[in-house]
Amino acid sequence: MSQVYILGCGAVGLLLAEKLAKEHSVTLITRNLSYQAFLFVQGKEQTHLDIKVTTLDQLSEKIHTCIIPVKAYQIEQAISDITPHLSDNANLILSHNGMHDLLSIQTQLAPKHALFFFSTSMGGMKPTPNSVIFKGHGLSQLGACNQIAKKRLNTLYQTWFATHFDPIEVVDDINLIRWQKLCVNIAINPLTALYQCQNGALRAPKYARKVLNLLNETCEIARLEGVELQLSEELTRVYHVMTLTAKNTSSMAQDIKLNRRSEIDAICGFVATMAKRHSRQAPQNERLWQQIKQKEQV
Ligand code: KPL
């Protein structure tokens, strides 16, 4: 049994906690101790998560493995909060939607800190702050973001992810999986947020042109960034995720419904900004970015 910490208690954090606690000792690091017990709901079954809960102030030992499944706009803060508590050779696993500058994170880490990225489209919904409803397996991918992580990737995968995360893929090219996940989030999140529908509803023919145009544009901008995505493969992946998570309400649809800040800046906003950097335009992403920003302000 190994020890893993999870920073934050969002839907993905709680879904990961449930899987990892089957074999390991899991500690959730929360802002305060308002909630000591967390519930996992699947179909008609409810179980209490077999985990410990603590705060950063109460941490009594250095952390060796920490998963950081926070929103894209919370990453900087999360990294600066956690780094003083890490052991010299800690493993950090980021898991978020959208794009974030990995170099700016890397500069805050010690030389032997390994940085990984875990991408998942596993579905979860939080009806209350201390419960999560499991909504579908989705696809997961794991990759290394720095040299030291490349050396530890296989061991990290075997220790934490090999058993309970099927289907999961270990990938060599971290940039590729970040762009692939971005394509999934671009095709699903903003449209489900605007139309307040479940992921599976986007498979209807009336959305097909929008999905195709968005992905086509995203593949073009990825190419300018040196990442070769095949439109047909991204379309297949996106429709596969829509099917695997058909009954799920995307995180952005939930954020907009509950008047919370969304991750649109790191999703469509990222593509539109990259396009400008190359003196190009990305009107499909730009339009959705602005539409969701307006909704955030309502
Ligand atoms: O990542 C997701 C999210 O909701 O943020 C998807 C893949 C759309 C699954 O719901």
From TrEMBL:
Q: In which pathway does it act?
A: Cofactor biosynthesis; (R)-pantothenate biosynthesis; (R)-pantoate from 3-methyl-2-oxobutanoate: step 2/2
Q: Where is the signal peptide?
A: none
Which residues belong to any copy of the Ketopantoate reductase C-terminal domain?
Answer: 173-296
Show the Gene3D superfamilies listed in the entry. N-(1-d-carboxylethyl)-l-norvaline Dehydrogenase, domain 2, NAD(P)-binding Rossmann-like Domain
Q: Which GO terms describe its molecular function?
A: 2-dehydropantoate 2-reductase activity; NADP binding
Q: Which UniProt keywords apply?
A: NADP, Oxidoreductase, Pantothenate biosynthesis
Q: Which GO terms describe its biological process?
A: pantothenate biosynthetic process
Give the reaction(s) catalysed.
(R)-pantoate + NADP(+) = 2-dehydropantoate + NADPH + H(+)
SUPFAM superfamilies xref list: 6-phosphogluconate dehydrogenase C-terminal domain-like, NAD(P)-binding Rossmann-fold domains
Query: What is one cellular component GO term in this UniProt entry?
Result: cytoplasm
Q: InterPro entries, per this entry?
A: 6-PGluconate_DH-like_C_sf, 6PGD_dom2, ApbA, Ketopantoate_reductase, KPA_reductase, KPR_N, NAD(P)-bd_dom_sf
The molecule here is called 2-dehydropantoate 2-reductase
Q: What is its EC number?
A: 1.1.1.169
Origin organism is Pseudoalteromonas luteoviolacea H33
Q: Can you tell which superkingdom this protein's organism belongs to?
A: Bacteria
Domain Ketopantoate reductase N-terminal: from-to ranges: 4-145
One Pfam family, please name it.
ApbA_C
The protein's job, in short, is: Catalyzes the NADPH-dependent reduction of ketopantoate into pantoic acid.
Family, according to the entry, reads as follows:
Belongs to the ketopantoate reductase family.
